[in-house]
Amino acid sequence: MDISVLHNSILFKGFDDTEISDLLKALNAAEKKYNKGEMIFSSGEITDKLCFVTAGGVTIESNDMWGNRTILNLVGKGQFFAESYALLPDVPMLVDVCAAEDCSIVFLSMKSLANLNDTISSRLLANLLTITTRKNLHLSSRSFHTAPRQVRGRIMAYLNTISVQKHSREFDIPFDRQQLADYLNVERSVLSNELSKMQRDGLIRCRKNHFEIITVTYLPG
Amino acid sequence: MDISVLHNSILFKGFDDTEISDLLKALNAAEKKYNKGEMIFSSGEITDKLCFVTAGGVTIESNDMWGNRTILNLVGKGQFFAESYALLPDVPMLVDVCAAEDCSIVFLSMKSLANLNDTISSRLLANLLTITTRKNLHLSSRSFHTAPRQVRGRIMAYLNTISVQKHSREFDIPFDRQQLADYLNVERSVLSNELSKMQRDGLIRCRKNHFEIITVTYLPG
DNA sequence: GAAAGTATGTTGTAATTACAACATTTCGGG
DNA sequence: CCCGAAATGTTGTAATTACAACATACTTTC
C-alpha cells in the first residue's frame, strides 16, 4: 500500500507515521485495484467505507434510465469519495462510481470510528469535516457550471473556474471531450461543435485538453 | 430569539439548555429578520457565519450573467446554510442566498469555534459533520434531478424522490412553479406545459403544489 | 509504418426548448 | 362581490439541442 499518498491526505493531516498505521489498522484499511471502466459502486448500494484514491482517478456519475451519463465529480489521486454514504450508512447511494482510468482505492471502515479514543477521534472528525466541506464546494461548482441554459455559457463558466484556479489563461483540463460533455450535461457532438465555433469567434484556443482563454480587447468608438 | 427551534436542531443535538445558551453566547449568536425576496448573501461575499433558519425559508441560488436563476437548494425552518463558507472562511461564496418568504436567521460565528474547550468542540464538530454530510446529499439529489436531458425526465426524477421521501404517491412539494422551474433548470412556461401534457398522458395529477403520481397498470396482450 | 481502435470534429434533420405574448385561474383585500 | 395582483396555463415562432451518420485525426500494437 502506498502510505506516502495517505500520509499527505487531508484525513491524516496532523497525524504522525505511527498514528497513521495504527489508524489504518483500526479502520480495517484494505486496498483494491480497478481497471479503467470498472464499476466501484453502483447506485442503490449501501456502504460504510470511506474511499481514498491512491492512484488513478474515478468519476462520480448518475446514469439515468435512458442511458445518459452525468458526471457529478472527478476524484483524483490523493482525494476521497463516498464520505457522505460512509458517514450516513443507512442511506443508499444515488450515484455510480466508475474507474476513469486504472486505479487503486483504499477502503476505510467508518463504523470502526466508534472504537477510537476521544482525542484521536476528534482530530479525525475535524479532518473529515474539511473533506465534506470541500466536497460541498465541488458539488456547488458543478451546479454553477451547468446553470447556464446554453452550451457556450456552460463551457465558459467551466473554463473560467479552471482558469481562476490555475491562475492562468492557459491550462489543461482533466476531462476528455466525452467526459466534459457528461460533466456539463450536453451532447458530445454539440460540445465539439460549440468549441469550434468559439475558436472561430476568437474566444478561446484549444487542442485536445489544453485550453487558452483569449482576452478580448474592446476598441474605442 | 426562538430557542426551541435551535434546541431541536442537528447542531445542538445532545446538548442541554444551559450548554446551548452558553454556546449561543460563545458563538456570538445574533438574529436578523428578512422580508420575502431580500438578499441575505450575494456571490463573492466572504463569511464565517453558520446560518440557521428559525422561521420561513431561503433559497440558495446561482444567478448567471444572463439573468437566469438556478435554485440549488431550499433551506427551511430548522435547517442550516452557508456551513461550507463558514468553515472555509477564505473561500468567497459562489451563490446568492435569498429569502423565499419572510424569515428569521440566526448567525453563528465559526471563527469562535477555536475558543471552545475540547469536549464541547468535538461534540459540536460531530454535529457539524452530520450537517455538511446531509447537505452533500441534497446537492447530489439536485444533480440527479437535473441529469435527464428532457423536461419530463427531470420532473419525474424530482417527483419520484419526493414520493419516496414521503412514503406516498400523493404529496405537496415546497416549490411554486417558478421555483420548481428554477430548481430543475427549465423554463417556467415549458414546465407548466409539460405538467399539462403529463396529466393528459395519465402519468400524474396535480393542482398547484399538490401532486399525485399515477401508477400505470400494464394490461396483458 | 500499416491496421485497428479510439477520440474528436462536422453536418443535417427531427425534436425540444426558449422566449414572448396572451389567457385563465387563484387569492386577498376593499 | 368586485377588483387588482400574482400565479399558472396556453400557444406560436425562433433558436437550440439531440441524435445519427459520417469524416478526420490521433494512438497503440504488432
Please tell me about this protein's structure:
The structure is a homodimer of 221-residue chains. The first copy, chain A, has 221 residues and is α+β, with helices and mostly antiparallel strands. Chain A is built from seven helices and eleven strands. The first copy, chain A, has helices at 3-7, 17-26, 83-87, 118-146, 151-166, 177-184, 188-200, and strands at residues 30-34, 39-41, 49-55, 57-63, 69-76, 80-81, 96-99, 103-109, 170-172, 204-207, 210-213. A four-stranded antiparallel beta sheet of chain A has the order 1-8-3-6. A four-stranded antiparallel beta sheet of chain A has the order 2-7-4-5. In chain A, a hairpin with a 2-residue loop joins strand 10 and strand 11 (210-213). In chain A, helix 4 (118-146) packs across helix 5 (151-166). The longest helix of chain A is centred in the middle third of the chain and has 29 residues, at 118-146. Chain A is elongated, with a radius of gyration of 20 Å. The model of chain A has no long low-confidence stretch (mean pLDDT 90). The A-B interface holds A 62, 64, 66, 68, 70, 72, 83-84, 87-88, 91, 94-95, 118-119, 121-122, 125-126, 128-130, 132-137, 139-144, 146-149, 153, 157, 185 and B 62, 64, 66, 68, 70, 72, 83-84, 87-88, 91, 94-95, 118-119, 121-122, 125-126, 128-130, 132-137, 139-144, 146-149, 153, 157, 185. Chain A binds a DNA duplex (30 and 30 nucleotides) through residues 149-151, 176-178, 186-190, 192-193, 195-196, 208.
